[in-house]
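Hello Y.,

Per our agreement to keep a running log of every chain we model this quarter, I'm adding this entry. I've kept the format consistent with earlier entries: sequence first, then predicted structure.
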Amino acid sequence: MASEKANKVKDQSLVENSTTVKAKSTFREYAEAIIMALVLALFIRTFIVQAFKIPSGSMIPTLEIGDHILVNKLSYGVRMPFLERYLVQYANVQRGDVVVFIYPEDRSKDFIKRVIAVAGDTVEVRAKKIFINGKQVDDPHAHFAGYDPQAGAVGSGDDYGPKVVPQRHIFVMGDNRDRSYDSRFWGFVNLDDVRGKAFLIYWSWDGTDRWVRWERLGSIIY
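Predicted structure for the entry above:
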């Protein structure tokens, strides 16, 4: 009888130990999966693709307030995390690209604008028309909504330059030309500060009522 009782206690102990090991194993599997997912998400955000939300109307009509976009961080090279510079750069920023970059006057903020001129170009704005190296260029993305008196510097963006874009810099402007605070006011953007090229609108809200702009979802950014 004593032997049978001891065996029962031993069997019960084995069951309890097995349950504990199984619980620890399940917890470990979930923890490892969560950690791997976080590491993968961080890797993708740091080196491949990053999501941004458009908070202002400086790029209307290309980008609307409430658009959520994806930026390809490998468009021009591989950036070194935290050091804000390129480890490898294998492509050049082109005129017409829509890029996200670190705002030169406040490096805690990111801006999005269109590239108008690249290093070595002489850029000039005359009566809202753009001239590169002395020749007027096509400007199909330009939108003129009229100046907003509350924005300040009314009319000061109608004329600019001529100025030569320094090496490893670009000149950028918002598509909503009358209501964009851009290179005409604060200067050039260092290529090391370019985070990547915007390529897709993956989500879009319309106004404070949060209506989904279904027609904009999946739109390619040109």
